[in-house]
Specification:
Bound molecules: uridine-diphosphate-2(N-acetylglucosaminyl) butyric acid
Structural class: alpha+beta
CATH superfamily of the largest domain: Enolpyruvate transferase domain
Strand order of the largest sheet: 21-22-1-23
Number of strands: 23
Number of domains: 2
């Protein structure tokens, strides 16, 4: 099993460029199923989850040409309409293939998707299933597989009782080829949803309102060829900003969109963490003493759950106590136990809330990556800590961050990978 060995404390410097957004790429790749024509995707991050998504598409009959940072996809005929468990079990976003397959081919069979164990039990897909049903599909469950069929999807009104990012994206993709008008209410508003809608609209779809709670989709007959540049990863952007502040480094983050992490930058301002920014860069200035801050994770544009773990590490260095309230997932604070082992003063109030008392010295330990975001968070903790930290299960980090060790070395971190990276 591959590991990272990190020697801290680190002082980072220079510039680090943000890669394309994982959670946009994982929707644009399956969206290619909606078209018979060639799709080109640029700024594609070279990460595990993207490789898994392309593998799954290839298994379905997609013809894929992958170059460094880009790929071309063409899907004329499917070789099957079943998501093989060996692929679908590996990542939650395999569910994103269901809507496009249903919309273009009328039938799809798939197992419950895998992915990070951060939600209640296996993360639910009830909203997706309800949505497909509302659009006129029939659903059965047999021998561990959902089977969804339709002769013709028809526009509908659907209200999300829980705001869901992938749920919104899935129903948008399913409704583009339905007859009539679909109105989705209480939608998620993440930038990745706007990017998906813009991309599909350029290919002939008629989607209005993406980025607001109500999205209206007028069905069209076909989706044409398209080219898409993946938007910068806002979670990577925020993570590097937090990493710089936590290590009290001066670091410039390039190829990013500062507007997408306004929640974090607003909090930095209140805490006294100084930064400057331009249209596509942010420079974090060496942090001195900074204030604690209570956060409550929220759908976009609120504080993202995907930045909660790195922010919790940052609060171990703040002058005072912060309450971290994770509202989206009930297992995303379990990693704080690792921070406590490293010397942090953290009290777990309940599965959704911890109190972090700072500032504390962190010390090196043998630790593990519990999920993608907890994985990067413990890397930040190791960069703060005195001594040599060993982190295993780094496959989790490779799922979401391209060449993280190489990129961190380029800004001055002492990080070594033991074992190889096989994407
Ligand atoms: N939910 C349901 N039923 C559903 C779907 C979701 O109850 O059918 C619940 C979930 O259990 C959760 C809440 O709705 O409590 C919100 O989850 P959401 O559906 O928005 O999450 P997601 O779409 O599965 C995406 C990202 C996550 C990110 C969340 C929240 C992708 C592939 N994943 O997940 O990213 O944390 O939105 O922003 O886009 C990550 O990148 O590490 C990651 C987990």
């Amino acid at each position: 099993m591959s590991k990272f060995i990190i020697n801290g404390p680190a002082k980072l410097s220079g510039a680090i460029a943000v890669k394309g957004a994982k959670n946009s790429a994982l929707k644009i790749i399956p969206a290619a199923l909606l078209s018979r024509q060639k799709i080109t995707i640029n700024n594609l991050p070279n990460i595990e989850d993207v490789s898994r998504a392309l593998e799954l598409l290839e298994d379905l009959g997609g013809v894929i040409k992958r170059r460094n940072g880009a790929c071309e996809i063409e899907i004329n005929n499917l070789s099957k309409n079943e998501l093989a468990p060996k692929f679908a079990n590996k990542f939650r976003a395999s569910i994103m293939f269901v809507g496009p397959l249903l919309a273009r081919f009328g039938e799809v069979k798939f197992p419950h998707p895998g992915g990070c164990v951060i939600g209640a039990g296996t993360r639910p897909i009830n909203l997706f299933l309800e949505g497909y049903k509302s659009l006129g599909a029939k659903i059965t469950f047999k021998n561990g597989f959902y089977i969804i069929k339709t002769n013709q999807l028809k526009g509908c009104d659907y209200f999300f009782t829980t705001v869901s990012v992938t749920g919104t994206e899935s129903l948008v993709m399913t409704a583009v080829l339905a007859t009539g008008i679909t109105i989705l209410k209480n939608c998620a508003m993440e930038p990745e949803i706007v990017a998906l809608a813009d991309y599909l609209n350029r290919q002939g779809a008629k989607i209005k309102g993406a980025g607001t709670p109500t999205i209206t989709i007028t069905g069209v007959d076909k989706i044409t060829a398209g080219e898409f540049n993946i938007i910068p990863d806002r979670i990577e952007t925020g993570t590097f900003a937090i990493m710089a502040a936590a290590t009290r480094s001066e670091l410039t983050i390039t190829k990013c969109n500062p507007a997408h992490i306004e929640a974090l930058l607003t909090i930095f301002n209140k805490q006294g963490i100084e930064f400057t920014f331009g249209p596509d860069w942010i420079k974090i200035l060496p942090a001195k003493n900074f204030l604690p801050y209570n956060i409550k994770t929220h759908e976009y544009p609120g504080f993202p759950t995907d930045l909660q773990s790195p922010f919790t590490v940052l609060m171990t260095q703040a002058s005072g106590s912060s309450i971290i309230h994770e509202t989206i997932y009930d297992r995303r604070l379990l990693f704080t136990d690792i921070l406590s082992q490293m010397g942090a003063d953290i009290i777990m109030c309940d599965p959704h809330r911890v109190v972090v008392n700072g500032p504390t010295k962190l010390s090196a330990k043998k630790i593990t990556s519990l999920d993608i975001r907890a994985g990067i968070a413990v890397i930040i903790a190791a960069l703060i800590a005195e001594g040599e930290t060993e982190i295993d299960n780094i496959y989790q980090v490779d799922r979401g961050y391209e060449d993280i060790d190489g990129r961190l070395r380029s800004i001055g971190a002492d990080i070594k990978r033991i074992g190889s990276l096989n994407l």
